[in-house]
């Protein structure tokens, strides 16, 4: 079902968290609300499910205005960060809870619980209590409980935050599989860009209560609208250089780095300050603009190494390269930037 | 400077010798065990004096017939109409009782000496000694006839004085021990059998003695059944309606309230607990009595003024349960409220989006997770209600007509305060002992039920 937030605002007392936010989530789409802590992404999620009352604007499920409906009547499934499984109920009772509350017959309840257990692969655990489950298993139960009512929308609030790295990887693909299998519209709230990029059709990146950019993961990675977006996406993260427009080039002061002006920067006046974003994979032995510096840090990642290169002015560039053993900390190197892949931002962080 | 002088000034040998005896003097206190006992001693003394001793003494008193009449120290032997009746009825020695009960006059040296001191004519004394020494008379009339027949012919007043001096009746005489009593009795009746002596000694004893009669009396008394069911009713009603029911209502109501009003609300319901009992109960009495608040309001509607608290047994119960209930509800409220607070808020969010409205959340989320707090409050309050006395004592004092007499109050009325004036410590102690035993048994059951260790470990809610 399509979800539409129409000029949605939310304030807690005098503190305005979100103002005039408009967001449309297509039917069957999985959208990530990505942003740092306190950006309003969980608030948005709680407004969609009805736990928070909105201060302004409308929320539509399909064509139905649910703005004033209590959560009980919205038919949404929510997976909470802590899973919020009821500790006094078995797994079976937890999954059956929404159906029992809805007054379904016990035969119907049993059938649907079994179906859900099959979907999320927890059939052998049905008679355990939440305390007897691992984190990943609890996660699956929470998913099953959220989905058992066949909700209009599935909301996931940082669902992977409490799992260890290996489980996180596994549950990432599991949640995506289940979402695709059920064809449900889903909203994932996360602060982890890897999760957002790997699980979702589109990402809405939020900062300070505003949506900064909505795009598919690839689009967003390759064409960030702001320095904030560029900095948020990508691992290892992008590095920024402070530059000044000088003739037809961007010069990094107190260093010999001269980057060609990109198309968007043609009209910039001489001396304008800009910042230049260079992703680690676009800086290395291959490239067209040479940069000299000293290796300040080497991080081994197994297949690849991450190098920090300190420039003459003290700023740091990152480079990720296949493992090589000929470079150590303190070495002077000259590597190159692929100048067609750099992003330029003005001093407000807007893309040029 | 100082430190170095200290070091050099004290020869090592004398230092070592000086320290060794000091350590030996401390002796036991050098070990943590000895010191621990010493530090615990004041607490131990208090525990023994004020916690253990009352229970032990209750147990001891329960097996005596102590009362105001017997006193709590030892008694004496006294031949009273009562003890003579005991002699007749319990020992079947009616004849002996009759003999001892009758006044007896014995002319002996002791009497003569006493007579001499009263300044009576020596001639009379001399003629009495001469004519009647060691003679005894069974009645006053017989003895006085003999006195009148003396050569001096004393007047009537003198005759009375003389006969009084020789009165050797055992009636109302007090003896500090059984030997003196028996000696006196033998003076009247020299042919007492050993059985008669024993019977006499125990029948006339005024002090307390060991007995199991209290328990026999307790099991056969009809009051016991009545008071027992009163107590059961009182505990059950107060517990169900107030200590659990009303406390739960308050806890849940305040849970769904905004923080501030909820806090104020809790404090208001805590007032009965922290206000002085006497004032709290007096306020209730003032509400209920015939010139009180209730009547002031109701008289406008033409209702006859009455004491609502003591008007009927039902009304008395109503007030007793309310007065006790509002005091007890605050504890349950606090415990339940904090237990509800311990449920993560996301559980309520989850229940809401799962479709559960408030009453369904209460039914499916709150109540099942409050199993242990409910059990705990039930157990704790049962024990405290069983021994609760002050509110009921001040409100109805067990009235009207003993309708609200509960066990603890009954103990008080029996042992410490009753109309007849004879306080039956022994009987009251036996009642108290029953209560103590019930309390201990219940506590043991509860501790087992709870698996006490499980109560003090952290709840197993994993995130």
TrEMBL record, chain A:
Compartments, record wording: Cell inner membrane
Gene Ontology CC: one annotated term: ATP-binding cassette (ABC) transporter complex, substrate-binding subunit-containing
MF terms in GO: ABC-type transporter activity; ATP binding; ATP hydrolysis activity
Membrane topology: Peripheral membrane protein
Main location, first listed in the record: membrane
Domain ABC transporter: 3-233
UniProt keyword annotations, A-Z: ATP-binding, Nucleotide-binding, Transport
Family classification: Belongs to the ABC transporter superfamily.
Name this polypeptide is given: ABC transporter
Automatic annotation (TrEMBL), chain B:
Chief place of localization: membrane
Topological relation to the membrane, as annotated: Multi-pass membrane protein
GO biological process: transmembrane transport
Pfam families xrefs: BPD_transp_1
Transmembrane intervals: 35-63, 227-252, 264-283, 316-340, 425-450
Domain ABC transmembrane type-1: 229-446
Any one of the GO CC terms: plasma membrane
Stretches for region Disordered: 1-20
Membership in a protein family: Belongs to the binding-protein-dependent transport system permease family.
Protein name in the entry: Carbohydrate ABC transporter membrane protein 1 (CUT1 family)
């Amino acid at each position: 079902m399509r979800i539409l937030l129409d000029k949605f605002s939310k304030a807690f007392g005098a503190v305005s968290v979100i103002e005039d936010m408009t967001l449309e989530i297509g039917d069957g789409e999985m959208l990530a609300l990505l942003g740092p802590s306190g950006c309003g992404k969980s608030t948005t999620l709680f407004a969609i499910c009805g736990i928070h009352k909105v201060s302004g604007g409308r929320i539509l499920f399909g064509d139905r205005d649910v703005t004033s409906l209590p959560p009980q009547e919205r038919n949404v499934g929510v997976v909470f960060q802590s899973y919020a499984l009821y500790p006094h109920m078995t797994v079976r009772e937890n999954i059956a809870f929404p159906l029992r509350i809805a007054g379904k017959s016990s035969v119907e309840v049993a059938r649907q619980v079994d179906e859900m257990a099959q979907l999320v692969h927890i059939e052998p655990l049905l008679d355990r209590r939440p305390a007897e489950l691992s984190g990943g298993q609890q996660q699956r139960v929470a998913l099953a409980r959220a989905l058992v009512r066949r909700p209009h929308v599935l909301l996931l609030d940082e669902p992977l935050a409490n799992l260890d790295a290996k489980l996180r990887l596994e549950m990432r693909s599991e949640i995506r599989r289940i979402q695709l299998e059920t064809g449900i519209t889903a909203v994932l709230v996360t602060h982890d860009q890897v999760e957002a990029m790997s699980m979702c059709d589109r990402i809405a990146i939020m900062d300070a209560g505003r949506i900064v950019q909505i795009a598919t993961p690839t689009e967003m990675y390759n064409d960030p609208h702001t320095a904030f977006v560029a900095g948020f996406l990508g691992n290892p993260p992008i590095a920024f250089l402070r530059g000044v427009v000088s003739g037809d080039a961007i010069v990094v002061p107190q260093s010999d780095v001269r980057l060609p002006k990109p198309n968007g920067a043609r009209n910039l006046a001489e001396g304008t300050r800009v910042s230049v974003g260079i992703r680690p994979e676009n800086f290395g032995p291959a490239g067209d603009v040479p940069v000299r510096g000293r290796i300040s840090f080497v991080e081994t990642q197994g297949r690849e190494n991450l190098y920090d290169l300190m420039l003459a002015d003290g700023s740091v560039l990152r480079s990720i390269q296949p493992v090589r053993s000929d470079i150590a900390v303190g070495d002077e190197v000259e590597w190159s930037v692929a100048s067609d892949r750099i992003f330029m931002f003005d001093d407000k962080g807007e893309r040029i | 400077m100082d430190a170095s002088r200290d070091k050099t000034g004290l020869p090592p040998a004398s230092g070592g010798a000086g320290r060794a005896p000091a350590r030996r003097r401390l002796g036991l206190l050098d070990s943590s065990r000895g010191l621990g006992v010493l530090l615990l001693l004041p607490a131990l003394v208090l525990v023994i004096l004020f916690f253990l001793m009352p229970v032990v003494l209750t147990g001891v008193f329960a097996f005596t017939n102590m009362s105001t009449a017997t006193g709590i120290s030892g008694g004496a032997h006294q031949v009273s109409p009562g003890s003579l009746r005991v002699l007749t009825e319990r020992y079947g020695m009616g004849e002996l009782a009759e003999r001892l009960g009758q006044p007896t006059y014995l002319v002996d040296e002791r009497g003569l000496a006493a007579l001499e001191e009263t300044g009576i004519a020596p001639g009379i004394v001399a003629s009495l000694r001469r004519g009647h020494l060691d003679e005894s008379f069974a009645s006053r009339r017989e003895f006085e006839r003999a006195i009148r027949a003396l050569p001096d012919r004393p007047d009537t007043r003198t005759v009375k004085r003389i006969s009084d001096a020789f009165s050797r009746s055992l009636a109302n005489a007090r003896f500090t021990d059984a030997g003196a009593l028996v000696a006196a009795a033998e003076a009247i009746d020299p042919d007492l059998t050993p059985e008669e002596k024993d019977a006499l000694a125990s029948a006339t004893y005024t002090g307390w003695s060991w007995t199991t009669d209290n328990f026999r009396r307790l099991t056969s008394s009809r009051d016991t059944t009545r008071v027992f069911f009163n107590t059961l009713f009182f505990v059950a009603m107060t517990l169900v309606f107030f200590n659990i029911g009303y406390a739960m209502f308050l806890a849940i109501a305040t849970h769904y309230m905004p923080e501030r009003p909820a806090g104020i609300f809790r404090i208001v319901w805590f007032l009965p607990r922290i206000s002085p009992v006497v004032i709290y109960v007096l306020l209730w009495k003032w509400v209920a009595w015939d010139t009180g608040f209730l009547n002031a309001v109701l008289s406008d509607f033409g209702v006859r003024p009455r004491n609502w608290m003591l008007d009927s047994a039902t009304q008395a119960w109503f007030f007793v349960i309310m007065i006790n209930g509002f005091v007890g509800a605050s504890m349950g409220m606090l415990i339940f409220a904090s237990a509800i607070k311990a449920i993560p808020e996301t559980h309520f969010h989850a229940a809401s989006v799962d479709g559960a409205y408030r009453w369904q959340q209460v039914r499916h989320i709150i109540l099942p997770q409050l199993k242990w707090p409910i059990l705990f409050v039930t157990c704790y309050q049962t024990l405290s209600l069983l021994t609760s006395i002050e509110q009921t004592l001040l409100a109805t004092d067990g009235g009207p007509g003993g309708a609200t007499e509960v066990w603890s109050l009954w103990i008080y009325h029996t042992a410490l305060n009753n109309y007849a004036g004879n306080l039956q410590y022994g009987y009251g102690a036996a009642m108290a002992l029953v209560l103590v035993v019930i309390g201990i048994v219940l506590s043991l059951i509860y501790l087992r039920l709870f698996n006490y260790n499980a109560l003090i470990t952290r709840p197993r809610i994993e995130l």
